[in-house]
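We modelled the chain as a single entity of 515 amino acids. Its sequence is:
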Amino acid sequence: MSPITQKRPPARWSWLFGTVFVAWTALTSFMTYSYAGASPSVAEPVNAVSAAVAEGTASSTSPSANAGTGLERAASFSDTFADIAERVSPSVVTIKVESKQQAPQQQLFGMPFFFGPNGGPNGQGRGDRQDGDQSLVKGSGSGVIFRADGAILTNNHVVDHAARIDVTLKDGRTFRGKVVGTDSAVDLAVVKIDAKGLPAATFADSARARVGEWVLAIGAPFGLDYTLTAGVLSAKGRGLGANEIEDYLQTDASINPGNSGGPLVDLHGRVLGINTMIIGRGAGIGFAIPSTLARTVGEQLLANGIVKRAWLGVGFQELTPELAASLGKADTHGALVSNVVAKGPADRAGLRAGDIIESVDGQSIAESKDLLRDVLAKPVGAEVKLNLLRDGKVQTLAVKTGERPKDLEHAEPGEGALGGGEDQLGLELQLLTPQIAEQLGYRGAGKVVVSGVRSGSPAEVAGLSRGDVIVEVDRHAVKAPTDLAQALHDGKALLRVDRTDHGDTRSFFAVLSKE
């Protein structure tokens, strides 16, 4: 036995291990938060860990006793996960789908999309096929019971084009499922089975969830029913460009093919989100649709088969420090209106491109996604009060929301091509001819198009691209390339730009600077 070992008897090692372990569990417990009215079976073990820290570290006279108490408390905290699994799993279902469809590609915007009909082992369906073939595809996903009468919430991509849906409950019973309604904009669907008295899940208010709190994912990854994994809520309000409406929760709880449609739950066993996708190249990066949005969509689909959403009829973008300075705003809080749909609700109320929306019904807008979240929470036909900044002055406008169109057509001008003389800005401009406009699919009112952008130039830094149409400079209409040159006499200009992609035109603001 070495001299070092002789100086530390086994009891002291046990005390040291127990103290370190308790300290770690205490630290992680602080990252959770308690909802009012939580079930004691779940909430008490978490609070017990904090008590264990005080009890185990305050007294140093009895290391062995402290170690025992600490380990017992830690085991109690571990039991919390088991309690959640037992309580929530009966509300989780496994969904098996058969569909005849063209074999889908595995990439989405460079990210493998591992869920849905290809959710079997290794992310593949069981049908022998090649990309592009029309064949029988078998796959699996997950779902969560949100009504005791057999209403199940899952992802749209799990049941899309399904010819047959089989739903298996925790008790082993299997039912034929029927799609009641789908919402591709959010990627949700409601499936109904002929059953009564089912254990419906409880939904949390995802707006109150805190980054860093513990979360658990339950589902059937790779067809392995009722698999539970643990992690934390890594971030909120994520957008990936995969769906029309996005406000994802991000988590590092392990989710895999087949988890789609299953719940992400908090330490009180409440559904915080519906697991939807992962980034294939990033280990431990998964995304879930927030429970508040998911529940609202599910109830509308169940009641009407469709979802009606409030709509302002504006396009908006993040307010960068450069844009804020150009518009006379001291901070970057708010959503910058980049375009207003003609004859839409915002247009009728008098909103203009360049307005900065700072609050909705008194709720501050910290960033542009807050505007989308607040508007979607309103019913169609509701009147909302917008506080906005226009030309440095605060104004209030009342807007009556309309119904969000199924296929949004952006009324703002779009992308074009530039030519002319290249200067220190690295920008070439030319007049927009009818021929160029037709080639671009542009139907806006812009008259000057970007025909070239030099790599590494101020124009590229500003985000301009060949084919962009310059509509305004410093809030004045651009009629010729010389208008831009005149506006840049002080070395900086605020541009309003239209960009067209496959016939869809969007507007945005950019700051062009010689520096």
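As a brief sanity check on the tokenised model: DSSP finds twelve helices and 29 strands in the chain. The first helix runs from residue 3 to 6.
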